[in-house]
Amino acid sequence: MKYRAKGCFVEISNLHKARYGYQPKLPGIFKGSVADVLVETGGGTRAVSDHEEISALFKHSYGRAPVRFVKGRNEKTRDLLNVGVILSGGQAPGGHNVIAGLFDGLKKWNPASRLYGFLGGPSGLIKGRYVEIDADLVDRYRNTGGFDIIGSGRTKIETTGQFDASLGTAKKLQLNALVIIGGDDSNTNAALLAEYFIEKGCGVQVIGCPKTIDGDLKHKYIEASFGFDTAVKTYSEIIGNIARDANSAKKYWHFIKLMGRAASHIALEAALQTRPNICFISEEIEAKGLSLSQVVDQICDAVVKRAENNENFGVILIPEGLVEFIPEVKNLISELNEIMARYKAEFEGIRSFQAHSAWLEKKLSRHSLVLFESFPEGIARQLLLDRDPHGNVQVSRIETEKLLMHLTEKKLLSMKVSGNYAGNFAAIGHFLGYEGRSAFPSNFDADYCYSLGFSAFFLIASGLTGYIASVCNLCAPAGEWLAGGIPITMLMNMEQRSGKKKPVIKKALVDLDGAPFKAFATLRDELALKTCFKYPGPVQYFGPPEICDLTTITLRLEHGGA
């Protein structure tokens, strides 16, 4: 099967064709006529913290109540609606199904309603670059991975000019509403845009959808961000393959870095699925105040003890953001960020790494300088790369797995010389990142995202703005899921960004008192010494629901299951 895209023919795989035919499952409330769905309102809400500051910034949209959908007669049915949709930030499996759910809801409401997709993320709204999404277009992307239907981007709408340009585009297309599909920053942007549109009295509603494979956009009413399920299952398949290879060859320690800068949800879930010898949880490292050498000691201890059993191999999982949670490294990075911002022109005038190092000798504190000089040159160079828009080091570009491999090998060599280690250590590094962001969505993510798209539509049909779509009770069969929405301001706090305090959705970190972490903690002493690998295999799309529709272990444990 082929279809034409931008002048060329695109081959469609058999799996692709089969996925086109998959009909996502929906919460029971959405089955039947769209005219039979109303919202039921709860009590008022407050921000996570900084209530007064958040309230002052969102005068028109703060404190609104969560809503859930119930059976009832909606008299607005068949009003024509024009809606825009934006994919914002990094890709996450299932994004196309959010758009499909939104499209199907709109067309059931009124076949003449229109859906416009803004190209390349928020910049498409600002610049007025869009495409009308029709049945032919949306049908080519149902149940598929990626964000390629309209593309994504990381532009933030924050200046007066950008807000005004966004309003201009909305007026040109006579939009009734805008749906922003994204993570914490993108949904913060949605709340700001909703507030701006209310102030301008233009009548354009703004609804968000919770996306991020990192899993750190979580709340009582947002049990999972979409894409997490698929991404972790994809990574776990690869980790399981690597673990089986290690167990077969009986050699190599595999250091595997995983996505998750701010939170370790991916690493924790992957550990529960694959049972590696070691999995570091950044939040625990920070809570215990462990130094880099103590982290390395943990690795060396496992390597030595496994070597005594003639098992000179293993698997170690490392969250992407680990280095920022090690207090001494975090302090070094903070000093570097400040120095490079304060002396930007001077720093950029220096051409060689050696000259940079000499220059830093006069700027860094003694402790940070000693740590910086202990790093292999490749890692030290990465710490000096261009900063992100917030002025911070780009942690994803730091090869933490190679840093730990280097320091582990260095310590083991010294232990060998002193007679405290007699094994053979050889290490291989991996970074699993892009491999999971655009995979075919699991049945769970296909269903969940389609349900989120329908929820976003019904929030629009109910006249709401500044809300994020919510689907709960996710461990139950999809027909029993509970749909609704919550005000985005309910998720916010104030944080320091680029030297200024700004409202942002608070990231949900791994709860060290939560059931998922405790389940892992009970296993890890045994995992460090014994070979207990599990091999989950590829994501399953066809077969019994207990195999194909299974949620993550994290979600099941959070709901009191196993």
How does this model look, in words?
The protein is an alpha/beta fold and 562 residues long. It has two domains: 27-227 and 441-505, 3-Layer(aba) Sandwich (Rossmann fold), CATH 3.40.50; 228-436 and 514-557, Phosphofructokinase domain (Rossmann fold), CATH 3.40.50. It is 42% helix and 16% strand. The chain has 22 helices and 17 strands. The strands form four sheets. A nine-stranded mixed β-sheet has the order 3-4-15-14-9-8-5-6-7, with helices on both faces. Strands 11-12-10-13 form a four-stranded parallel β-sheet, with helices on both faces. It has a two-stranded antiparallel ribbon with strand order 1-2. Helix 8 (228-249) crosses helix 9 (265-274). The protein is globular. It starts with a strand and ends with a helix.
